[in-house]
Every structure is written in structure tokens, then in C-alpha cells.
Design goal:
Number of helices: 15
Largest sheet: 16 strands, parallel
Strand order of the largest sheet: 4-5-6-7-8-9-10-11-12-13-14-15-17-19-20-21
Low-confidence stretches: 50-54, 126-141, 655-659
Structural class: alpha/beta
Shape: globular
Strand content: 5-15%
Oligomer: single chain
Helix content: 25-40%
Number of strands: 21
Distance between the termini: 70 Å
């Protein structure tokens, strides 16, 4: 394990020499000397194998303490350099040089101690190789927990720390995969590789944990990938975290925290934050719960300990304002404000020079962002979506200077922004709202065609939900790597280029109200896995033309919503051969499921929301005439129309008196 965290800190020092070149000017020799010793320790650690889990346990802990103390010194030096000048700055520089020399001496001693222990270990042999895995601690008798502990211990370090980070979230909490990727990167848990995008490496780590069963994918199709930590794995991980006393903590009102705690999640009262940061120099702070905030709740921002934060995640916390002092968190890389009640961003937000992720989706009455966001030149993910009304967020001119940006969503591209987007050729995810013919459509598509790395594209017409038209250019050539495409608004016809997108895996056509069936074109897409036709096709009847035998070869998830559809008469044998999830939503007139549905043996789930009452009678297992079509499906979910109406009455406070 020592090899892993040593390697992480070497990479951090490498990054600091680049990103904080001004602060570290004059310290290059000291830092390089320290990195040389760390590389020697890494080499020894790689050779020591399992002996470091037994004979060298105390050495490993001492090394961790040394590195964590050095990390505190480095971050503290950067913070103070930003606030000192003149003779005070000279004193600070001299003091920091002394800290570096002191750390180098500790590392030199560590190398000597490790060599001695390595020699002793080779003499004693390997008779204690599995000593650490003879059993659980007192009271831990569960076989599954014992196995989980072994699995956790055997994980490589880069997966251990990623998995431990997942346990920050409350038990059974559904974690959005994209959010987790961004958090891993902000915390510095992902080691870069030459020629690879760091977000892809983070995704590989998550996929490894999924394949090992330490993270489970929640079946939540159509709304992003959700993950949950299995309870037995979480229990073991939290026990390990408690032993190490630095990775994470989930305090309640009575808990006390070690000074070395690095990550804190508050599950009840925001006032706890002040007591935590008055003692510890934490790097991550999460607030879970639906309580609001007062001005007094933000006093902790003035504490020195708050300045070390890299992650501040307040998602769903219902806080009402964000004070100016947030702009003093100079190490902050991740600011999560999604679904809070914030209606204005402070101008000092522009001081967050290290910020990588700014998530302001569905924030109160927030309609625009201040010009100062243009100072956030390291921003990689800028996620927006207005809460009031359905329209794009207004952003200042100058967005084209964000050369590190990977994600930009929820924007209004008028007033010259559409043209500026053409400078963001590195973008991988783009979401534009209020698209209309007059001011953005032509320039917008020209800009998108320059984005050769684009993976996901979402375009929403102005007034899309009220029959607004989405203008699509026939001359448009989609970026070659595009995998996900969302189109919201009336389409006059299916564009020719849509049927040629061989890399496409996910497609949503929303409120398209096409007169022609789009499936006749879409069924030929070779890699399409998720398809949502949300009021996309105005037809009373769908027949076997929807999909021929072998059509939609990889489609796993199909959603159809239509207020017009009355009958789906037939599915030919061999159609949609990989289908797992079928969702029929808002099909208020649908009276028949297709003949041939019984032949799709891959189906895991069918949902009918809502379902006509007489149709429910025909689907019942006790004599329903259509039950043979669905009896092979493991999970059938539905809510009848009468139940929907009753729920609506209750929600309006109109409850029918029982006689």
C-alpha cells in the first residue's frame, strides 16, 4: 500500500511545480530532492510485498503521517503566500524551506528504517504472510464481512482510496456516476496517464469496482448511471477508515474527530461544520439533509481550517445563500450547489483559481452567472440548468477562453455565444437551450462541427414543451465520436445524418411530434442501447413496421411516451433482440400491448405508467386475456389510471369521504 500513496504524492508535487510555479519559485531543488527520496521509497515498497502489512505496519503509518503533514505544510504555504507581502513573505519563505528540509530528513530516516526492516523480513521468511487475514476484530463474525475485508485489503491502493471515498455518502445513497468522477478528480485520487483524459481513467476505476461487486449499478434507466455501495462492503470500509483516522468521518452531534481527518460528511446540522474545521484541516466537506441556512451557519468560512478545502458539496442541502467568503477558498476544486435555494452567486467566486467543477443546476431563481466566472480558467465542468422557467442560463461573453473545459451544459447560446463555442474544440459534453432559427442555429451547428472530441450533445428548442420548433441543418455533420444525443422540440422531419451515426449509444427525441415513424431509420443504428421517444411520433397505431427482425440489435432500454397512441399491434419475431427495459409512459389511450412481446425473452422489466383500468384487467395473471404476453417478464410495474386520479385528488386536498 505504501507504494500507492507515495506514488500519489509524487504526482501531486509534480503538479504543484506546474500549477503553483510562482509560489514554488526558488524551491525547485528542495522539492526535487524530496521527490527523489519518495521514488526510492516507492521502489522499496513495491519490492516488499505483503511484509508491509505485518512487520512494517508502523513504518507505513509513520510514512503516511509524514506525507500528510507535508501536504498540510504545502497547502498552508500557498494559502499564506496569497495574503502576505514584504518582510512577512520572506519569513514565510524561510519557514517553509525549513519545513521542506525537515521533511527530507524524516524521509531519509524512513528509507534507512525500511531497509533495516526489509532485511529482517527476509531473514524471518514469509511464515506470517496471511497473518492479517485470520479473522475479523472482536464481534465481527459475519462470513460476508470477513470476505469483504479480505477483498478490500487486496485492492490496489488507487482503488482502495476511490472505494473509501464512495463510503462518504449515506447508506443506500444513490451516487451519480458523473458526480463521482468529478469528485475523484477534484480530490486528486486519479493518477494521470500520458495521452489519456483523466475523466476516462476515473471511469475505468469505477468500472473496476463495479466488476468486483464493490459498487452496484442501480437500475435507473434514462436518468444517468446511479451507483450504491453494498452494505457489507460499506461496513468493512468504514471500519478501516476509522482505524486510519484520516480519510473520512460522518460525525453526529456527539462525535469527536481526529485532527488528521481529511474528509467530512455532515448528515444533520450545518452548525457542526464550525466545530470540525476549527480543529481539522479537511479537504472535503459534504452536507446532506434538507435544512436551510442562516448567516451564522457560515462563520466557519473565516476559520483557517476551511482554507484547505478542495471539495465543497452542498447538493440538495437547501441552503439559501452563498457568502462572499467562499471566494477565499483558494484550494477549492469542486463546488456543488445543485438543487439548492441559492438565487445569486457572489462575485468573489471568480477568485477560485483552482476550481475544476461548478455545478449550479436547478439553483433557486438563479438565471445568470456573474462576469467574474471568466477568471476560472482551470474549469473543466460547468453544469447549469435554470429552475424557474425552462430556458438556458445566460453566460458572459468570453467563454471561449476556457481551454480546459470538458463539460458545458444548460446554456443559452444567443448574443454571440454560439460563435464563441467554436473555440471550445476540446469539449466532450455540450448542452444548449433556447435554440431557435433566428439567432443561434446556423452558428451553433458550425461550432459543434469543430468539436471533434464531443461525446454528448443536447439541443433544446425555445418553448420546446409548448410546440417550439428545433431547427436542424441538413448540412450538419455530427462529430465522429458522438455517443449521446438529446433533441427537444418539434422536428419537421428526421434529418438524414441521424441514421448515419454509428457511434451513437443513447438517443432521446423529445416533443418532436413527427408524422413519420423515426424507428424505421433508427433501428439500423448498430450501437444504440438507450432510446427514448418522448412524444416523438404522433400516431394512433404502431405495427410491425416499428422494427424488423434483427432491428435495434443492441437496444437495451426503450421508452415510449404518447398521448395519441392507442394500439401497438405487433412485434415481429427477432425484433429488438437485446431489450431489457420497456417503459410505456403517459400513453393515456393505449389499449393493447403488441403481439410478439412474449417472444422477447431478454426483458427484465416492463413499466406502464399509467395503465388504463380495463387494460389492467386483461393483463392479470388470473385469467387476463393478454397475460401470456407479459408472464415471462420478471418485473412488471404499473399504476392504474384510477389510482393516478386518486393520487391527484389527494395532492389537491380533495379526499372522497368514505361511507
Amino acid at each position: 500500500m505504501a507504494e500507492g500513496f507515495v506514488n500519489f504524492y509524487i504526482q501531486r508535487l509534480d503538479t504543484l511545480l506546474i500549477e503553483e510555479a510562482e509560489s514554488f519559485s526558488g524551491f525547485e531543488d528542495e522539492v526535487q530532492q524530496m521527490m527523489s527520496m519518495l521514488k526510492e521509497i516507492r521502489s522499496f515498497s513495491a519490492e516488499s510485498g505483503s511484509t508491509e502489512e505485518t512487520d512494517a505496519a508502523s513504518w507505513v503509518r509513520e510514512l503516511k503521517d509524514t506525507i500528510n503533514e507535508m501536504d498540510d505544510s504545502v497547502d498552508g504555504f500557498i494559502i499564506q503566500m496569497d495574503t502576505h507581502s514584504g518582510s512577512e513573505r520572506k519569513k514565510l519563505i524561510d519557514s517553509f524551506r525549513h519545513e521542506l528540509q525537515k521533511t527530507s530528513s524524516c524521509l531519509a530516516e524512513t528509507v534507512l528504517v525500511h531497509r533495516t526492516r526489509k532485511l529482517n523480513s527476509s531473514i524471518k521468511g514469509e511464515k506470517r504472510e496471511n497473518e492479517n487475514f485470520h479473522g475479523m476484530d472482536e464481534g465481527e463474525t459475519s462470513a460476508s464481512c470477513s470476505l469483504s475485508k479480505l477483498e478490500y485489503k487486496n485492492l490496489p491502493y488507487h482503488l482502495q482510496i476511490c472505494f473509501a471515498y464512495c463510503c462518504i455518502f449515506p447508506e443506500n445513497y444513490w451516487i451519480n456516476k458523473g458526480r463521482l468522477i468529478r469528485l475523484f478528480i477534484a480530490e486528486g485520487l486519479i493518477q494521470g496517464k500520458a495521452g489519456e483524459v483523466i475523466e476516462d481513467i476515473a471511469q475505468e476505476n469505477i468500472n473496476e469496482l463495479i466488476n468486483l461487486g464493490m459498487l452496484q449499478v442501480v437500475d435507473h434507466p434514462g436518468n444517468g448511471i446511479k451507483l450504491v455501495v453494498p452494505s457489507h462492503h460499506r461496513e468493512v470500509c468504514l471500519h478501516q477508515i476509522k482505524e486510519e483516522e484520516f480519510q473520512t468521518a460522518c460525525p453526529n452531534s456527539d462525535s469527536s474527530l481526529p485532527l488528521t481527518v481529511r474528509c467530512v460528511s455532515i448528515h444533520s446540522d450545518m452548525k457542526q461544520v464550525e466545530s470540525v474545521l476549527s480543529k481539522a484541516r479537511s479537504r472535503s466537506l459534504f452536507l446532506f439533509g434538507n435544512r436551510g441556512s442562516s448567516e451564522d451557519d457560515w462563520n466557519w468560512l473565516n476559520l483557517y481550517g476551511s482554507k484547505f478545502l478542495r471539495v465543497l458539496d452542498l447538493e440538495d442541502s437547501k441552503i439559501k445563500h452563498l457568502p462572499d467568503e467562499v471566494g477565499d477558498l483558494m484550494h477549492l476544486r469542486y463546488l456543488g450547489l445543485k438543487q439548492t435555494d441559492i438565487s445569486e452567486l457572489p462575485k468573489r467566486l471568480g477568485n477560485l483559481r483552482a476550481l475544476q467543477t461548478l455545478d449550479i443546476r436547478r439553483c433557486g431563481n438563479l438565471k445568470a452567472v456573474p462576469n467574474e466566472v471568466l477568471n476560472l480558467l482551470r474549469l473543466r465542468h460547468f453544469k447549469m440548468f435554470k429552475n424557474i422557467g425552462i430556458g438556458g442560463m445566460s453566460i458572459p461573453k468570453g467563454i471561449g477562453r476556457f481551454k480546459s473545459l470538458q463539460t458545458l451544459t444548460g446554456i443559452y447560446a444567443g448574443d454571440g455565444i454560439a460563435r464563441e463555442l467554436g473555440s471550445l474544440i476540446q469539449l466532450r459534453r455540450l448542452g444548449v437551450m433556447d435554440v431557435n432559427e433566428d439567432d443561434v442555429s446556423g452558428e451553433l451547428f458550425v461550432s459543434v462541427m469543430k468539436m471533434r472530441e464531443l461525446l454528448c450533445l443536447s439541443l433544446q428548442a425555445k418553448h420546446a414543451f409548448h410546440r417550439g420548433t428545433l431547427p436542424l441543418l441538413e448540412s450538419f455533420v455530427p462529430p465522429p465520436l458522438l455517443r449521446k444525443l438529446h433533441l427537444e422540440g418539434i422536428l419537421e422531419r428526421i434529418p438524414n445524418w441521424l441514421g448515419l451515426m454509428e457511434s451513437l449509444t443513447c438517443l432521446r427525441l423529445g416533443y418532436s411530434h413527427l408524422s413519420e415513424n423515426p424507428a424505421t431509420v433508427l433501428q439500423h443504428l448498430p450501437n444504440l442501447k438507450i432510446l427514448c421517444l418522448w412524444h416523438a411520433f404522433d400516431a394512433k397505431q404502431i405495427g410491425k413496421e416499428f422494427c424488423r427482425a434483427g432491428g435495434f440489435p443492441k437496444l437495451e432500454d426503450l421508452t415510449i411516451a404518447s398521448h395519441v397512441l392507442e394500439e401497438w399491434t405487433e412485434l415481429v419475431e427477432g425484433a429488438v433482440p437485446s431489450l431489457k427495459f420497456l417503459h410505456l409512459r403517459n400513453c393515456l389511450r393505449l389499449r393493447m400491448l403488441p403481439e410478439g412481446l412474449q417472444c422477447i425473452t431478454t426483458l427484465k422489466q416492463l413499466s406502464l405508467l399509467p395503465l388504463l383500468d380495463d387494460h389492467e384487467e386483461r393483463l392479470r395473471p388470473d385469467g387476463g386475456k393478454e397475460n401470456y404476453k407479459i408472464k415471462h417478464i420478471p418485473q412488471v410495474k404499473f399504476i392504474t389510471m384510477s389510482a393516478v386520479n386518486q393520487i391527484a385528488l389527494h395532492s389537491r386536498g380533495v379526499v372522497k369521504n368514505e361511507e
